[in-house]
Give the backbone structure.
Amino acid sequence: MGCSSIGHVRSRARSLRRGSRGFVKAGWSLVALGLAAFIAPEEAQAEQTLVSIKGITLQGALDIGGSAFFLPNTNFGAGSYGTKSSGALVRHKNSTYGEFYGKPMLMGSWQTGWGFTVIGKASAIGATTLGDGDAEEVSQTSGTPRSIYLEEANLGVEVPLEMAGGKQLLTVQGGRQAFAVDDGFLIGKGTYSAGDRGAWWYAPRYAFSGPGVIKLEGDSVRGDIFMLESNSDNDLDRGYDRPETKFVGFDVSWFKNRPGGHGGSTYADRAAYVTLTYFHVRDADGSAHYDYSTRADRNGMNVAALSWGGTLFPVKALGISKNFTFYGNFVSEQNSHAGNGYKSVEAYGMYFEPGYTFSMLPWKPHLFYRYTRFGGGKNAEGSVKRNYDTFFLYDGKRYTYGGYWPGEIVGMYLAPLSDLEVHQFDLTATPPVHLFRKKDELKLGVHFYDLSLLYPSGMGLKNVGRHVSNEVDFTAEYMLDETTSAAVAAGTAFSGPAGRALSRAGVPTGYRMHDIGRHAGVLEAYFYKHF
């Protein structure tokens, strides 16, 4: 089901970048700014009411976020190349960069007195990337890009209904808007934060362009009908954006609410759910830029998905009624009239995630295993495209770390999100400590990823083993309240034969091949604040 409220968790696009050093001082300034926000009044700050008169309410709000990164032995020694003003590339063996963004918002509503409410929202995002830029082998956000662009601009009506003995809310909303289905595995991001947009890792942009969405939110069932398009600009994003895509479809969900929750509008309030989604790509960029690529050819594609999550089959005697969860998603992509070098598309993507919370133990540790498979083909230039297209993938609202990108090193900067198999283990725990307030929360985590290519030949690699890497990341996530959070992470990755081959293949043509090793690392921190 769709959800218009999308959190601050980062998401990313495969991309390119460049650099200037001297970022470390600025990075620590960002962290200090985030920590300063903790010494604030006890109450969590929400939107500020600017006008409230005769049924008309106008509110304002502001999001800010920042992040800092150091990646020793970037891409197992291949490094990351940034573009200089002359157009030449400069290699960074150990990448250092940071990001910052701000998002002012204006929301309005008018209770008409005729049984419906008029709603609207407008927002913009200003963002920058500092230092070397993101750590992909050819960095997309080098050169300290800065930008200010429109994010949301929409208008709609809300109509309360009473049907079949229950209460529903019908919303018709047109224009630029954030929109997600479930946890965003298939639909969650309409704008990617690449190239000159800046803030590539944090990726604070979500909005799709219209026409818009019709939503029906009920007590246990909800659905959406949507006609939207992605916001793509390869000039702005240095040629690494997704194809511009216009699509139309629907989703329908059955869900069970958590106590006091409303799963019709809030994904996190669902104790269990099952969702069916379908959309048709009515138009997409089919230029030669996408020949034989993972995303060729979207035009005319039909996409169907079945997703589920929560405690679907409660058995109290086994403790399954509250402690055991099972999430998953299966996506099918079909196109019998493909182009860009293909005659048809037959691709699949999926994940299955059983988890268990040991609620009887101190710190209430939560453990889950996730198997993810982004389909691929044996022949990179065959007549049938079998490489899975992630479309509008968002990193997930259920977890900050442990989302759908497989790791903070290899999955973030090197591995393709196609032709890939991931075994993932996550263990998190919440110690009973409070750093600044009685109700703040510290969550500690260990995240392990085992990555392998399905078919190395499908990635253009010959006579190479399947294994890409193993990676372990350690995280500490702190939430002061619902409006203020921060995190730090550290990790190490160990390369396999396919990982080293991907590192070699990513070095720009004409540049010297450096020694490709077996280790790479990451240190990172971020903060988020909503005013």
